[in-house]
Amino acid sequence: MKLEQIDVPVNNQLLVDYRNQKSTISSFFHYTNEDESFERRLEDLKNHPIRRAELVKVISEFMAPLEKSVKMEQHLRELENNAVVVVGGQQAGLLTGPLYSVHKAISVLLLAKEQRAKLDVPVVPVFWIAGEDHDIDEINHTFTALNGRLQKHIHPDRSKKKTMASTTTLDIEDTRKFIKNVFQQYGETAYTEELLAKIDTLLVRSHTYTDFFAQLMHWLFKEEGLLLLDAADPKLRAYEAPYFERLVNHSEEIADVVSNREALLADSGYGTPIGATKENANLFYVKEGERFLLERKDGKFINNVANVQFTKEDMLQLAIEQPACLSNNVVTRPLMQDMVLPVLAFVGGPGELAYWSTLKDAFELLGMKVPVFVPRMNMTLVNRQVSHLLETHDLSVTEVLSGKVAQMHHTFVNEVYDDAAKEAIEKTKALLQQQYVDLQKHLHKNDVHLDKLVIKNLDIHENQLDFLLKKIEAEVLLQHDVAIRRFNEMEGQLIPEGILMERVFNPFQYMNEYGMTLIGDILQLPLEVSELHQVIYI
């Protein structure tokens, strides 16, 4: 395994400006992403009340079904005393979802270790599972690459209901079939049997999407002591009851300041990532496992689809007596995290950075500050086959990610293309068209009007010539199939359909090639959370 750190251009202007600490975006945060900010944030957290014993009990009970580890127990003890946390989170995707879920967890772990050393205080890594998210279509699939083309594998159990990931049951047999189909695309290796057996062991302990995600993530990061929380855990919701009260009491003000802040963000050229409105309650109501976004209208909290309406007093009563009936959205989730946890820093992607850019005034409204926001690491895994192809073509990963392979592919196809055949067919079409013009003139001269039939007949002949040209093109490309497959393989593995591979593939594709120790070995590399793109040759 080898590490290479490269500079890859970023298209997201907000992220670029945040990294460069441009005033146009840094003014939307309380801290910039630099060392002195962590020291200031640590000092500010001394006045931040956390019910630590209750919190640790919630996390311990959620992680009880998972295998214990020395680091996990250490981090729980530290959190109960005076530790602060680095937190990141993601939806509960099948087979962990895209690799960036794993990369986010690695970023959280590395940043926690780094700040523990620099600040000389216990800093604990926490992964916040967004189990309350209800868009199952976003998490019920994964991708493989076949001959450089993406293949989408969707879990067969599809529900019409928008139930939360933490309440959506996973059928064990259906999920086994799903995993088997995915691994068939990977191909049999020396690690496949052991890997499938381990995944199956964790699957049978799981009842929901969130259970399975938590089992897999804990297995991958157990020795590092990554603590896991489920946003939809009823015990966490009970712990959050007084915080839901605060969110209900300040719902109108939160909606107002977030809408105003987002307007400022748009004026600065960064768009409207949330689409905030002053009527949004920024809370969901949970009914039979489904979430319904509430709006404020005429002094009430309503959702017409669910046929519910609550007064503010009703909402406060729900917060106190039935907090599991309430759920956060993208606005209130960061606020809730900061009330629940002593957050030193939050690790997130570009989308989360955009959301968080709208929240400064909402944090202040609740007497808090936006934690230090640290962009997650970007990583690309390169297997041996792709590494060999790069060497053969004298290409770097930087060049592939910047589109050079696509250019080479296009140039190669143009070079082998049969221009003479195309020219001959175009000449034939031109002659044919002229002959049909002459035919039309002759028919008109003899008072025969078959214009539509003549045009249709010409179209048939032109379509046949086009079909012939495509067949010629396909035959030529087939003669150069090996070269073209190499281009497809490099693109398909590193930047499938123009997207970074970490946004497409899951980690088990690479564990199937490398072995069970992949994540542990990656964590042994001299990685640092930075704006450099981490390329790992496995």
Automatic annotation (TrEMBL):
The keyword Ligase applies. Its EC number is 6.-.-.-. Keywords: Ligase. Residues 1-377 form the Bacillithiol biosynthesis BshC N-terminal Rossmann-like domain. It is an enzyme of class 6 (ligase). One of its GO terms (molecular function) is ligase activity. Transmembrane segments: none annotated. Belongs to the BshC family. NCBIfam families: thiol_BshC (TIGR03998). This is Putative cysteine ligase BshC. It comes from Viridibacillus arenosi FSL R5-213.
